[in-house]
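[Meeting: bench + compute handoff]

Bench side (C.D.) handed over the final construct sequence. Compute side (W.E.) agreed to return the predicted structure before the next meeting so the bench team could plan truncations. Sequence as handed over:
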Amino acid sequence: MLFPCWLFNHASGFSAATKIAVYNSRGHIGEQSPIQYYRSHLPSEVIQQLNAAKGRLRTILYGKIFEKVDKLLDSSCDLKEESLFGYVKALRATKVWPLDTVWGKMEVHIILNYLAQFEYTPTECLDNGCDCRHHDFNWSIKKTVDKVRWYFDGLCLDCMDKSKAKTTDHDSDYWFHNNLDKDIWDRGCRGKHREPTWYFSFMGRRDDRDNFFRANNIPLGAPAVVDDDDA
């Protein structure tokens, strides 16, 4: 459905199809035409950005999961090694850890479903005031799963169109249309979406985008998840 939705400028359909491609595909995302020898294709940037979005999900998962490892290593508990072992053992029990062993073989949404079954409460340390006891590992993993599950809203045809150079100024059309408002990522778009869709829907030159970010004090790179309530 990617190509028909793109060809006929069906914004909601394209957004849904690109989200499905990221969360419900195995391995590298590619374009497959149901019609043999059909010469029309999606812009190469579309497939590139879908794979970039999928890679970002993996990076977020690894980063958030290893945050707990760092906190355990920094703990003052004498039994933190045992707690760390218990944490990693519980991750392995989900059947999707290490992620590298399954990332190219399973769909992202299935990996998330397995991780959502994570269960671990430190019992190695009997001191209720210990740092290990203060970490809610179950809540943290489940919160990470939820954040990754809703991170990407699919690509936006309107943002893609805005980011194409239409004047001699590579980025004026796209960025001026958005009024440089970093809090309303779907301004002027036909569908609601958040910052990651805005970011991955950029179809212009990467150096133009990065120069714009630097000029407006916006951190380079793909958007991170919000850590307002991490355990």
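W.E. noted at the follow-up: DSSP finds ten helices and no strands in the chain. C.D. will use this when planning the next construct.
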